[in-house]
Amino acid sequence: MGKIKTHKASAKRFSVTGTGKVKAYHSDHRHNLNQKTAKRKRHLRSSQILSKAMTANVKRLIGQD
Question: How do residues 17-59 score in pLDDT, each as one tens digit?
Fold first, then answer.
């Protein structure tokens, strides 16, 4: 059986930490920023750790089984 190709769009958006968790950036931080509070925009700047269910899906896409 052949190798599974990496889904390049996903590989650019997600990264795997040393402990195997998947990091991603928050959504809603591109436009309409003037109506969002400074606290909300500040929290959206940081990355987030995906849930266990999403982690399994993303790892399969980026070839990190």
Answer: 999 999 999 999 999 999 999 999 999 999 999 999 999 999 9
Task: Report the alpha-carbon distance of residue 21 to residue 47 in Å, rounded.
Answer: 12
Burial of 22 (0-12, 13-18, 19+ CB in 10 A): buried
Report the alpha-carbon distance of residue 55 to residue 49 in Å, rounded.
9
Q: pTM score, two decimals?
A: 0.81
Nearest to 14 by CA among 41, 48, 44: 48
Domains, the chain, in order of start with CATH, read: 8-62 (4.10.410.60)
